[in-house]
Design goal:
alpha/beta, 12% strand, elongated, 50% helix
């Protein structure tokens, strides 16, 4: 099949390559000419603008957006929609908020254009093993695009979840669960690292991958990371978040669901970005005041308000 891929970051570029390997014709555009040239050298059809990319599509057009969520997605969506006709298809494979996807589907439908929200998981390994795809939107449009989804996904790795927004909703929850799993591994391995048993953490990660009830792909990746850096000394503990964890916790609150582990995992990420916080200094001061517990004096006093 023929489609346009808009956005050639780590995910968009590798997805384009997998589509090319599957025999599809892919017209590409990215704001980085270097990114475009890289995939053109692998067989893609390059474009110097979004308009040009869409103009190179024939028949019923399919445009896959693989750009960051938020304003960028909104701007690209509006630009793409303005150039499509009834029966064409827009696929958003980024991590958009599901309610935004529901709204975009309604806007597109006013022009007769189908909008599919495709939650995409697989990261940088997707080129090799495939991407798990959670798709929401019109059943006929999903079926028409099936060859694309099945090329990108591993066997049984693609599913239409339901109506518009459902794909990104399920992907949002998926990432919330991912936060919790990662936090559990992090805490467990820190306990072992702090013990007196001199545990070979990489060996344990590999061992647990062999039939253990806690085996997972994340554990395989942890084993790989520990192989490259046994003490994880080459990195800092600053952990960012891309938004889905926040959305999942907010959704849990709105639905009165007590998502304890997911919420803790999100808060742990916020905590990783702080050092010597005012809250921690408050705790130390209180312990000193009521119990006379020793406090560690700061070498350089923290400025007021920090």
């Amino acid at each position: 099949m023929q489609l346009a891929m808009i956005g050639l970051g780590k995910m968009g570029a590798s997805m384009t390559e997998r589509l090319l390997q599957g025999g599809h014709s892919v017209v590409v555009f990215d704001t980085s000419a270097d990114n475009v040239n890289e995939v053109v050298n692998k067989g893609a059809i390059g474009s110097s603008s979004l308009d040009e990319a869409i103009s190179k599509l024939n028949g019923r057009k399919i445009v896959w957006m693989m750009v960051p969520s938020g304003d960028i997605t909104e701007n690209v969506f509006n630009s793409v929609l303005s150039q499509l006709s009834a029966n064409d298809i827009i696929i958003d494979g980024g991590n958009s908020f599901y309610k935004d996807s529901m709204r975009r589907s309604e806007v597109a439908s006013e022009k007769g254009v189908f909008f599919l929200d495709a939650g995409t998981s697989g990261g940088v390994w997707g080129l090799e093993v495939g991407y798990c795809l959670m798709v929401g939107g019109d059943a006929e449009a999903v079926e028409y695009s099936r060859e694309i989804f099945e090329t990108l996904a591993p066997p049984q790795g693609f599913q239409r979840i339901g109506k518009s927004g459902s794909g990104h909703f399920v992907k949002m929850v998926h990432n919330g669960i991912e936060y919790g799993m990662m936090q559990a591994y992090a805490e467990g391995f820190e306990i072992m690292q702090a013990s007196d048993f001199d545990v070979d953490l990489r060996a344990v990660a590999d061992l647990w991958g062999q039939g253990s009830v806690v085996r997972s792909w994340l554990l395989e990746l942890l084993e790989r990371a520990l192989k490259d850096d046994p003490g994880l000394e080459k990195i800092t503990g600053f952990v960012s978040d891309s938004g889905e964890g926040r959305w999942t916790v907010k959704e849990a609150i709105d639905l009165d669901v007590p998502a304890l582990s997911l919420t803790h995992a999100l808060m742990a990420r916020f905590r990783s970005r702080q050092e010597n916080t005012f809250a921690d200094r408050t705790l130390a001061a209180l312990r000193n005041q009521f119990g006379g517990h020793a406090v560690k004096k700061a070498e350089t006093p923290e400025p007021v308000g920090k």
